[in-house]
Design the sequence.
C-alpha cells in the first residue's frame, strides 16, 4: 500500500513540475499564426498560444513587444497595439529562455468567408480558371482554407495542419473562388495586403454555423443544442440519449422495430440471412425480395482484430448509405446520418472494439430511390489511431425488415450536414480573437423551403459572429441565391425565391450589411454555377461601399415601392446607376401581380429614358394586393441597371 501511495505522489509531482513557471517546453502559437499569415490592420492584434503554466511570455511584431502570462492551463494571450498595413515581419514569442517565430507576416485586411458548397467551390473549377491561375502571382494576397471539423464542443484550436498560402499559379486553384475574386478586386483597389480565411462545408445548413448560446434562444433548437452540449461533455451519455430518442421514433413508426432490436446484439445468429456484397442500390443486388423494395433492411458483418488493433481502433468508415442509417459496433450505437450523400465516418469510443470477433450492425431505411450501402467496397474500413485502416469484409449479411415509404428519420443534432452549432464549434470558434475587415456568407441552398425560419437565423448568425469576434459593426456581405431548377411556366410558389427574399430582408435591416445579387449568373441545370468571378466582384462592390466607406452604389437596383396610379402600377427602384434598362426586349419579363394567393404574369415596361421606375399598364385592378419579380426557382430575367447589375428579385405590397 505504501509503495502504491509513493508511486501516486511521484506521478503527481511529475505532473505538477510539467506546469511549473518557466517551463517552456510547451511554448507555442495558435495554429492560425502560421508563416505568411495576414493580420488585420488598424485594430489591436491579439496573439495567443500555449506555454508552461505561469510562464511570462513576450510577443514581438514589427518592432513592438508586449507581454502576457500563461494561466493554470498553460494558455496565454497578449495584445499588440494597432498597426498600419505593412510587412513582411517576423512574429516572435519568447518564454523561459526559448522562442518560436513565424516568418513573412503581413498586416493588411483579413476577410472571413463561409457558407456551403458555392463558397467552398474552388478557383480551379471556375469559369476562366486557366487564365486566372496563370496570372495569380501576388504575394500581397494570402489565403487559409480551414479544414472541415464538426465538433460538439467549442474548440480553442483549428484542426491541423494549418497553412497560409501565397497566391500564385501553384496555389490559387485550391482557394475559394468567390472569396478570391472578391479579395483580388479589393486588393487591386486599395493596394494593401489581403488575407482571406475560408471556413466552408458543402451541403450544410445555417444552423450548424451559429454558436450554441445564440442558437438555443430559438425555441425550436433549445433541446437540440442542449443535446449537442451533453454529447460534447460526455460522448457516451450523449450517444445513449440519442439512441433512446432514435429508438422512440422507430417504435412509433415501425411495428417490427422492438423485435428487430435483437439483431443489433453481437451474439445474434445471422447465419440464415442472405449474403450480399453491397455496391449500390439494394434493388440491383439480386437478393430475393429487394428488387422493388422500399423500407428497412439490416446489414451485419464481422471482423477479427488482434489485441493491439482493438486497442488502436477508433473509427468505422462505411462510405455513403442510401438513405437513413443507424450503426452499432458490438451493440454500442456509434452513429447515424440522415443524408444519402454523406459518407459514414463514425468515431468509436475506446473499449468498444474487442480483441477477437467484432460485429458491425446497420439498420437502413431507404429514401425511395434505392437503398443500402451505396459506396465502393474498398472504402469501408476500421480506422486506427495512427491513421492506418483495416479493411472490412466485402460481403455482408442482409435481411429485409418492414416496408416503409415516405418516412424520414430525424438526424442526431450533431449530424452533418444538418447539425446544430457544431461547425461553429470546430471551424469558427478557433478563430475568435482574430480580427477581420469583413465577413462574406454564401449559403442558403440547404435551407430553401424554410425561408420563414431563415429570416430569424441569418440575422442571428450575423449578431452571433459579431459578438464573438468583439466587432459589433463587422461588415457582413451575403450572396443571394442564384437561379437553379426547372423554369416556371406559370406563377407559383418557390422555396428559392422565398429564401432570396429572406436574405434580402436580413441585409435591408442591417446598416452594416450588403447583398450581392446573382440571379443572372446561375445555371438551372447545375446548383454550382461556375461564373464565380462576377459573384466575387459584386461582393467587392458592396464591400467598397459598406466596409471601405466609398461613396458608391453598393449593388443591384432594388425595388422600394409599388403604387397604383390610375389603372396602372408603378414600381420605383433605388440604386439604378442612372436608370433601368431591359435587354433583348422593350419589356421586362418575370413580373407578376397577385390577388391574395393567386398570381398572374404582368406586362412591364421601363417608364422612360433614364427612369428609375417600371410601369405595369392596366395591372392596378382593385383585387391586386402584391407585385413580385423573378419569383421562381430559375427565373429568366432581363431587367438591369445602367451599370449592368441585375434588378434584385422582390415582392411588395401595392399601396
Sequence:
Amino acid at each position: 500500500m505504501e509503495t502504491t501511495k509513493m508511486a501516486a505522489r511521484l506521478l503527481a509531482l511529475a505532473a505538477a513540475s510539467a506546469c511549473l513557471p518557466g517551463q517552456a517546453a510547451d511554448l507555442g502559437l495558435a495554429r492560425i499564426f502560421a508563416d505568411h499569415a495576414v493580420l488585420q490592420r488598424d485594430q489591436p492584434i491579439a496573439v495567443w498560444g500555449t506555454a508552461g503554466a505561469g510562464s511570462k511570455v513576450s510577443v514581438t511584431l514589427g518592432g513592438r513587444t508586449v507581454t502576457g502570462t500563461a494561466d493554470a492551463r498553460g494558455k496565454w494571450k497578449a495584445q499588440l497595439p494597432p498597426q498600419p498595413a505593412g510587412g513582411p515581419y517576423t512574429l516572435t514569442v519568447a518564454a523561459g529562455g526559448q522562442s518560436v517565430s513565424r516568418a513573412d507576416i503581413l498586416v493588411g485586411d483579413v476577410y472571413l468567408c463561409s457558407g456551403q458548397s458555392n463558397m467552398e467551390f474552388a478557383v480551379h473549377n471556375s469559369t476562366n480558371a486557366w487564365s486566372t491561375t496563370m496570372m495569380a502571382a501576388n504575394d500581397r494576397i494570402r489565403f487559409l482554407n480551414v479544414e472541415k471539423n464538426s465538433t460538439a464542443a467549442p474548440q480553442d484550436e483549428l484542426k491541423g495542419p494549418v497553412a497560409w498560402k501565397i497566391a500564385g499559379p501553384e496555389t490559387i486553384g485550391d482557394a475559394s473562388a468567390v472569396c478570391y475574386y472578391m479579395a483580388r478586386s479589393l486588393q487591386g483597389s486599395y493596394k494593401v495586403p489581403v488575407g482571406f480565411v475560408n471556413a466552408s462545408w458543402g451541403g450544410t445548413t445555417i444552423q450548424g454555423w451559429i454558436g450554441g448560446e445564440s442558437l438555443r434562444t430559438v425555441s425550436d433548437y433549445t433541446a437540440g443544442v442542449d443535446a449537442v452540449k451533453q454529447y460534447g461533455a460526455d460522448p457516451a451519455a450523449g450517444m445513449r440519449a440519442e439512441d433512446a430518442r432514435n429508438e422512440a421514433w422507430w417504435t412509433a413508426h415501425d411495428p417490427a422495430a422492438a423485435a428487430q432490436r435483437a439483431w443489433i446484439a453481437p451474439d445474434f445468429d445471422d447465419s440464415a440471412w442472405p449474403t450480399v456484397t453491397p455496391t449500390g442500390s439494394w434493388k440491383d443486388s439480386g437478393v430475393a425480395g429487394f428488387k422493388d423494395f422500399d423500407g428497412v433492411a439490416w446489414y451485419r458483418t464481422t471482423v477479427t482484430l488482434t489485441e493491439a488493433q482493438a486497442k488502436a481502433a477508433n473509427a468505422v468508415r462505411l462510405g455513403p448509405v442510401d438513405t437513413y442509417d443507424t450503426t452499432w459496433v458490438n451493440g454500442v450505437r456509434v452513429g447515424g446520418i440522415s443524408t444519402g450523400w454523406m459518407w459514414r465516418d463514425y468515431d468509436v469510443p475506446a473499449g468498444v472494439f474487442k480483441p477477437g470477433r467484432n460485429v458491425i450492425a446497420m439498420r437502413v431505411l431507404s429514401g425511395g430511390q434505392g437503398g443500402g450501402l451505396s459506396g465502393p467496397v474498398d472504402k469501408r474500413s476500421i480506422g486506427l489511431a495512427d491513421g492506418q485502416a483495416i479493411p472490412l469484409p466485402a460481403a455482408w449479411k442482409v435481411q429485409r425488415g418492414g416496408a416503409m415509404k415516405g418516412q424520414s428519420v430525424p438526424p442526431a443534432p450533431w449530424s452533418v450536414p444538418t447539425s446544430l452549432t457544431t461547425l461553429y464549434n470546430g471551424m469558427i470558434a478557433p478563430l475568435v480573437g482574430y480580427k477581420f475587415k469583413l465577413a462574406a456568407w454564401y449559403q442558403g441552398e440547404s435551407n430553401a423551403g424554410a425561408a420563414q425560419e431563415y429570416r430569424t437565423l441569418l440575422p442571428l448568425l450575423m449578431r452571433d459572429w459579431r459578438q464573438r469576434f468583439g466587432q459589433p459593426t463587422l461588415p457582413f456581405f451575403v450572396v443571394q441565391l442564384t437561379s437553379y431548377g426547372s423554369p416556371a411556366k406559370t406563377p407559383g410558389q418557390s422555396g428559392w425565391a422565398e429564401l432570396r427574399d429572406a436574405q434580402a430582408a436580413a441585409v435591408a435591416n442591417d446598416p452594416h450589411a450588403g447583398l450581392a445579387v446573382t440571379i443572372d449568373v446561375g445555371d438551372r441545370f447545375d446548383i454550382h454555377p461556375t461564373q464565380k468571378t462576377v459573384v466575387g466582384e459584386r461582393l467587392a462592390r458592396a464591400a467598397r461601399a459598406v466596409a471601405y466607406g466609398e461613396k458608391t452604389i453598393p449593388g443591384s437596383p432594388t425595388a422600394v415601392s409599388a403604387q397604383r396610379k390610375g389603372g396602372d402600377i408603378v414600381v420605383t427602384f433605388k440604386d439604378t446607376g442612372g436608370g433601368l434598362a431591359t435587354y433583348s426586349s422593350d419589356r421586362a419579363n418575370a413580373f407578376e401581380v397577385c390577388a391574395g394567393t393567386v398570381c398572374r404574369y404582368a406586362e412591364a415596361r421601363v417608364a422612360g429614358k433614364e427612369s428609375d421606375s417600371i410601369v405595369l399598364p392596366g395591372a392596378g385592378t382593385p383585387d391586386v394586393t402584391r407585385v413580385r419579380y423573378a419569383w421562381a426557382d430559375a427565373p429568366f430575367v432581363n431587367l438591369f441597371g445602367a451599370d449592368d447589375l441585375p434588378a434584385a428579385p422582390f415582392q411588395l405590397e401595392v399601396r
Observations:
- The longest helix spans residues 235-253.
- Confidence is low (pLDDT under 50) at residues 1-25.
- The radius of gyration is 28 Å.
- The first strand starts at residue 28 and ends at 29.
